[in-house]
Amino acid sequence: MKKIGLLLVVTTTLLVSSCTKMHLNPYSNSTVIKHNAQGLVTLRGISDEVLDKRKTDGEEESLKNAHKKAIQQFLYMGFPGTDFKNGVIKKGASVETTHAAFFEKFWAGDYKRFITNSDVTYYNCKEKVKCISAVTEFTINYNALRKELEENKIINKIGF
């Protein structure tokens, strides 16, 4: 009887834990590396998506995903414990829907105008035969980025 009860508890626990969906910060692998100069910050972005090289240019797409994750954390969430503890855009990621035309163009490649230095390392994945992931450390000119966001009415000018 004890064995059946124990088996029932273990089975129930396994079923509940496999059905529970955890909500994780989608940018959690992004970090601030250094902030030595006014207006510039070096970020690390990690593309942990598994991209199939047969369907796309894996390296380019992985680098873009790594940049995007780090920039999105910078814009929307900030990096606690750093000079950038709050996101630049207070409204959050929903602003990408409100200003869809701007962000479509921005993520298509305009964001690269604000990157002054980028170093990337690519990794092959073990789960799939032909896949790639990227880790990049890059410097972003956040003063120029902030000005661009202000000019496009995505954020208010400081003090207004």
Give the biggest beta sheet.
Answer: 4 strands, antiparallel
Provide the number of structural domains.
1
What percentage of the residues does DSSP assign to strands (E)? 15-25%
Give the CA-CA distance, first to last residue. Answer: 71 Å
Q: Which structural class do you get from the secondary structure elements?
A: alpha+beta
Order of helices and strands: HEEHHHEEH
Biggest sheet strand order reads 1-2-4-3
Average pLDDT value?
79
Bulk shape:
globular
Contiguous helical run count: 5
Could you list the spans in which at least 5 consecutive residues all have pLDDT below 50?
A: 6-25
How many DSSP-defined strands? 4
Taking Cα atoms only, what radius of gyration do you get, to the nearest Å? 20 Å
| Percentage of residues in helical conformation | 25-40%
Protein name: Lipoprotein
What does this structure look like?
This is Lipoprotein. It comes from Faecalibacter macacae. This protein has one domain (26-151). The chain has helices at residues 2-19, 58-77, 95-98, 100-108, 142-151; strands spanning 31-34, 40-52, 115-124, 131-141. Helix content is 38%, strand content 24%. The protein is globular and about 55 Å long. The protein has a four-stranded antiparallel beta sheet. It is α+β, with helices and mostly antiparallel strands and 160 residues long. The relative contact order is 0.17. The protein is built from five helices and four strands; from the N terminus they run αββαααββα.
What distinguishing features does this structure have?
about 160 residues, alpha+beta, four-stranded antiparallel sheet, about 40% helix, Lipoprotein
